[in-house]
Amino acid sequence: MTSEPMASNVEYRLALRIWHPVFPPERISNELGFPIGGGWAVGSTRKSVTGDILSPQTMTYWTSPFEPENPDGLSGIILALCRRLDPQVAFLREIRATGGRIEFFVGWFSGTHSGETLEFSLLQMVGRLEADLALDVYAEPQAVAQHA
Fold first, then answer.
1. Contact 42, 59 (CB under 8 A)
2. Less Cβ around it within 10 Å: N or C end of the chain?
3. Per-domain boundaries in the chain
């Protein structure tokens, strides 16, 4: 199910991110068995960069990094997260059904050209969990200019 990345100097960082209109971050952590890596609760105070009080948060935002013990390319990391979350599929579907959103956030760090194929069977597993897949690619400016 995994494929090899095109470049060996590629690094991936994956985080699970959830937004919900009602659920507090603690409930999400308790249900999923993941620590809270960051975020806020619906209704909590927001402040501007100058310290001014803004309207309260309209959604809970919860995030937790995911670092498997033996990462095997991007496909392997996503597969490990899918397997870890599969027992909680009912809760993930409840999140979606009640107005929330689930995202596998991937930071893709590459100093050169890179790529990876995500096989349909892996994407089906992500879809079964009702999660979105977000890819943020970070390349060195020199590498981007060479391929432009």
1. yes
2. C
3. 11-147
